Amino acid sequence: MTTTPQTEPRWLSPAEQHLWRTFLRMRQQLDAQLARHIQLESDISIADFSVLVVLTDVPEGRVRVLELARGLQWEKSRLSHHLARMVKRGLIERAECSEDGRGSFVLITDAGRRAIEAAAPRHVELVRTLFFDPLSEEQVTQLTQISERILGAMEGCPEALPES
């Protein structure tokens, strides 16, 4: 069975357009507030925090660079530049992969662990205040279901990050 490509765009209804723009504005403001507060209240940026979260979520505190790029949805060049800055500040270390000699690992340092442990309590309190506190338990459940459904729809989309 052959499907014909749709010729007319499926424009958003006024209610859909309002929801979409409200969602984008909410996400942008939430991202900006979280970034601003973490920078003001700790010695790390929101990008540092994101990298350190991934490293503290794995047992050995180390992850392959390519895995990190995919997990963060960052381009390799952005990640490479950011990791170099974090190495200079002593938050992480880079290590060659002895198993295959091609890849490399990112490892959290003691300083990186101290930095995220200091930043995390204030960060989670702000997340709770800005995101969870305004919602009822039912709304949290609904938003979880909605988010999972949208993420599921995106699973079939091609990766934004190139392999190389």
TrEMBL record:
Residues 16-152 form the HTH marR-type domain. GO terms for molecular function: DNA-binding transcription factor activity. InterPro entries: HTH_MarR-typ, MarR/SlyA-like, WH-like_DNA-bd_sf, WH_DNA-bd_sf. Pfam families: MarR_2. One of its GO terms (biological process) is response to stress. Coiled coil: none annotated. This is MarR family transcriptional regulator.
